[in-house]
Amino acid sequence: MREQLSVMEKRGNTNCFSEVNFNHLLVTMKDRTYPEGTHLYWEGDVSDKLYYMKRGRAQITKSTDEGKELIMYMYQSGDMIGQADPFFGSKHTFSAEVLEDSEIGVLEHKDLEMLICQHCDFAIDFMKWMGIHHRLTQTKFRDLMLYGKPGALCSTLIRLSNSYGEPHGEHVIIHKKITHTDLSNMIGATRESVNRMLSDLRKKDAIEYDNGMIVIKDLKMLQGICHCELCPNEICRI
């Protein structure tokens, strides 16, 4: 039973699917490989597929009118990517870039519709996935708009700790090297302002660095700055 649960826990944002319905997804999708640096889709492309990350990583980006690229989400093995309204012939509002050589299952919308028509319990699980997807988007924009750049940065650090963090006593080490440029692209700020905010957090003893990795020392302080609503980890993720 424990082994079965551990497999479920590795499914990322598809944990909402039962084992039976998840297997329906697996047998319906077509496996493809994507090399590092390629795109699953571009902003403005017709949304006619969903993508399941079997192995690898990808990031979702949004381009501003000034040409700056904003990192909206980062996905890894076990996550499903794509527009959450697949039945209206809509166009992608973001771009999806593959960050490393990846194995991805591609699910056509017409095949998804067939699954929903054939299995009502699958439809319920898919609605749960869509709900998680929308909540993740809502909380992301909340971070960016309501509490300034310091709030957005602190929220991003909390999300990174939930996605890549490992507890060490009372501290959490984020086991992923994130550059200041990456952080600036995640919150729509300049690299210089991110440098200053991180320096302030270090002076307040909220974070520190260990071999290039960010260590969160005072999670409550970060939560206070971003007015954390204590969302579950499937929502509070990068």
Automatic annotation (TrEMBL):
GO terms for cellular component: cytosol. One of its GO terms (molecular function) is DNA-binding transcription factor activity. The keyword DNA-binding applies. It comes from the Bacteria. Keywords: Activator, DNA-binding, Transcription, Transcription regulation. It holds the Pfam family HTH_Crp_2. Residues 25-116 form the Cyclic nucleotide-binding domain. InterPro entries: cNMP-bd_dom, cNMP-bd_dom_sf, Env_Response_Regulators, HTH_CRP, RmlC-like_jellyroll, WH-like_DNA-bd_sf, WH_DNA-bd_sf. Residues 147-220 form the HTH crp-type domain. The keyword Transcription regulation applies. This is Crp/Fnr family transcriptional regulator.
